[in-house]
Amino acid sequence: MTLKGNRALCAAAICATLSVVSLDASAVLKAGEKAPDFTTQASLGGNAYSYSLADALKHGPVVLYFYPAAFTKGCTIEAHEFADAVDRYKQYGATVIGVSYDDIDTLKKFSVSECRSKFPVAADPQRRIIDAYDAALPLVRTMANRVSYVIAPDGTIVYEYTSLSPDKHVQNTLNAVKAWAEQHPRR
Question: Is 15 a catalytic residue?
Answer without folding.
Answer: no
